[in-house]
Write a structure and sequence with these properties.
Length: 501
Amino acid sequence: MKEVSRISRQGPVFESATKMYSFEYPNYWNMPKKGGKHAEMGKEMQAQCKRAKVEEACSLSVMNFENPDSLFGSFISPIKQEMFFREYWEQKPLLVQRNDPLLAAYYQSLFQLSDLKELCSQGLYYGQDINICRCVNGKKKVLNKEGKVNYMQLKKDFDQKKATIQFHQPQRFKEELWKIQEKLECYFGSLVGSNVYITPQGSQGLPPHYDDVEVFILQLEGKKHWRLYKPTVHLAREYNVESEDRIGNPTHEFTLKPGDLLYFPRGTIHQADTPLGISYSTHVTISTYQNNSWGDFLLDAIPGLVFDSAKEDVVLRTSIPRQLLMQVDTADSTKKLSSLLRRLADRLENTRELRSSDMKKDFIMNRLPPCLGCDSDPLTPGGKLPKIDSKIRLQFRDHAIITVEPDQENSDEIRRDMVYVYHSLKNRRETHMMGREDDTTSEEGTSQQTHGLRFPLSYLDALKQIWSSSTVNVKELNLISDEEKENLALSLWTECLIEVI
């Protein structure tokens, strides 16, 4: 078993390829170390002065929210992004150990055990918002009650049954997590979810398992003892529990403290417990890239490619052999399919755009809206109306996409291609990552929907102009008439996607 060594404050130490990269870095904010230990969190819950310091640290965010790139850079700091994606992403775990009191206080402000009492008063439900569980003999034992969560009962299970509290998608309630995850969704172009785990001392919530997501662990309170194991399924596509006798010895073992960050790829087998002597541990798991592989993209894009290719290639329109669907041995047909796939591959080489049928829409419909603050009013168009002589600029570029799809409002057999602009500006933070059932309804009684605009295919080049330029004059848009140009600009303005400058 390889232990992650302690690293001196002088700088990084690069370990062998089979080990993680561990880094402790000096306090850039010159804040003096506080006395006492994080292990005494139960007493700290009663100390108002301690809570005040945490809230003050929250206001001095150590994250750089200027843009998605700067946010991720500060998220994994001091690791450089180029090194992260070259050496760790989808390859091996990364441990970043930090000795920074301000960062530790900021992490604690993201979510604390003491937050649960207030959150429970807002109306939380077992299963939907909170799970209570404990690992018993290598299996997950769920201790949920029915219906609404009662805080006193929750605390009783936590204290007496040594149960782990799993809080689902805390970004729905905690604004700083909303800010972080919204920027990460822009950075990755993939949904980003989170769960908080609060585990009492001498206990473990989940058995050894692997996930189907890329995982970032932020240690918020107390300490957590981790063991990682060699994957049995690299870059796994589904969650699975593994038995102790199958996973062998840990490849890495270490303890996280507040301010530390851990990353590991999907498929990495792991388990974690709160050591004795530590009153409890709180960490948040931030995860992304579920069903976001090349295989998923092919499943999404190939149907559109085949559909478009068959319009122009008569070979793809010829009939399959008689009784092919009734045959057991299809060896001859697989050879034919191989040749057709090669034809598609040749066509793909000269295709500038791939039509995404579901992935783009699913991402934009289910992602977080821009974080403008909890007290902010809903987005409404503002400023000057765009005219033919106006100069305009795209807003919320990371929250909007352009796709070409068959006309969804035309039920005729011959459906024209139309341009759709989808955006997430009107998405609801309260439902983020909480299921995507077709009958999901909002408080207003309206079903989940994709927000956006629909244009004739002739508008595509003009839309690309706006998306690819820092600013553009309405009269220079690549459309035939001034009326079309003004209509396009006004449509985007009403959805808050452009501003007049």
